[in-house]
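Entry for the shared binder. Reason: the reviewer on the internal report wants the predicted structure included alongside the sequence.
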Amino acid sequence: MNLIPYTNPVYYRNRELSWISFDERVLSEAKDKTIPLFERLKFLSITASNLDEFFMIRVASLKDMVHADYTKPDIAGLTPKEQLRELSARTHNLVQMQYNTYNRSLLPALSKAGLNVVREHEALTKAQRSYLDTYFEENIYPVLTPMAMDSSRPFPLVRNKTLNIGALICKKDSKKGKEVMEFATVQVPSVLPRIIPLPDGKDGRKSIILLEEVIEYNIGRLFQSYDVVCAYPYRIMRNADLTIDEDEAADLLKEIQKQLKKRQWGEVIRLEVDEKMDRRLLKILKTEFEIRDEDIFEINGPLDLTFLMKMFGMEGFDEYKIAQHAPAPVPEFINQPDIFEQIRKGDVFLHHPFQSFDPVVNFIKQAAKDPEVLAIKQTLYRVSGNSPIIAALAQAAENGKQVSVLVELKARFDEENNIVWAKMLEKAGCHVIYGLLGLKTHSKITLVVRREEEGIRRYVHLGTGNYNDSTAKLYTDCGILTCDAKIGQDATAVFNMLSGYSEPDSWNKLVLAPIWMRDRFLQMIEMEMNNAKEGQPARIVAKMNSLCDRDIIAALYAASAAGVKIELIIRGICCLKTGIPGISENITVRSIVGNYLEHSRIFYFYANGQEEIYMGSADWMPRNLDKRVEIIFPVEDPKIKAKVWHVLDMQLKDNMKAHILQTDGSYEKIDKRGKVLVNCQELFCEEADEAVKQIVEPENKRVFIPAEAPEEI
């Protein structure tokens, strides 16, 4: 495929600026007054945690490039220094919008709903002051560790992401002609609840105050030999991007453990301070952290808005929340205790969180206990804190089965968690693989080898999301359970490749990165382009988290120019531009930001009427296609194919949570006037519940069509 005409940087958007647009879309949900109030708190909290990670990894990486004098421009033509300059302006604007939303919209709405967030100590009643005095004395004061800086005590270590209170203090009754001020700081303890409920007022209204407000008010008690000149909260963000030379690391596990400790000492890349902070105090922080003005964020409100997620969990405000949907049982497994017997009847489609994640957990649990199961092999990228899957794998090993688990130690921010699990699995007798040199293993695959009357049979789970029972309730993901012989052969080949570096001469159905996934995607896009050139119907529908691979985008441009109808559903980063005359006029991009995090990857190609559908773990990003072990798999069963198409079709019809990419790079919601409202996530919840009713209440059974056939092109 000739992609040369599409390499011009003007055809691409910068990856980092596109990510900022995604966080702005999340923020727009916090602003939306049609959404229940406490759901809006949740969205604002998510924007804050998103931004933290963005700074620790993406901004940190750009700063590393600048320090190394790396000047190569990205696909949009921006050097690292230029990217940082533009990001500084956009992130400052984003933070300002966050706090405008919090102060002007959410706080008044909370007050109206009967929840008062106390921001000034003077606003407390006498009873509330008395309560807080006792609470501070008994619960907070014993935990605090004040630290001063002077000639004998250097500037203390301030840990990444922690909330702190900085103060200027001076000796009482100093005999010196001029008082000498010193810097002091105290960390707001993360072991204590940040939200402190107060005794209800006379009107019965609930009130809360933040932990740092109480510490700040009582800070004089921490420095009793000093006068406190001023005290204000501050927070830093450090470079948390691990740098590991795997060729030099004799033991990857130990090397990652060592690097994790360095995160607390990384370069400070962002400083958040109260906007009223005394300039003298700010100057000390700026000097000690060696930080530039453009990396300082002066905040009008409480630092670190992630506390709003805790506020979301407060009891007594259910009317301001969306009723939580309980994941529905998967119909194929209702009243079917033998999961293997059910899989033998045919492939099973799983759609989380609308359907329960239990079948995946039970698949491992039953395999662990089944005397006919000989081996279990699985890849683990991110797992929950108390994972039933880990427990089942350990039990399987203890039961004498051969258990091989690839634990990806390089899963960002889960490294420490994964090290703990890896050690536990090894202790239980599992064979643990710590990933491949230079690659992250991001694929989602489980293989169970079982001895049956007909011989050895292989059962496989393939999915788009992690083996994490907690996030399976929050992220939208798809998967299949199958005993297809060819997929089973491929699954065996995958694990042999991961454990023994052996690659088969050919593959049956699975498509792997970094081996040949990129080529396969480019071939399928080119196939649609050629069909369009020959006057045949041609269509691509692709759903993913991010799109920033230049070769894939260039191929999409070429296909669009040839007349292929391309509909992209991209939650986050999108470096492609729509509406370029003669290039991308046939491409639409939508981002769905709803109650659940869109996480599934689905790829549809019209294929001259053969309609090929794939699902898997990979986004269209260089890291997924070139630097990770990823798997996509074909959806071949006609019934499952219809269900998967239905997922895409409803997302394309969503007009409540969809944001449409405009030609200028902005995103706009759809004008809903006069239209039938479609919220795809709510629809999937209803359909999952309805499918169960048809089984448990057969007398009320109605005709239920789970999916429409694709419209004629």
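Summary line for the report: The mean pLDDT is 90.
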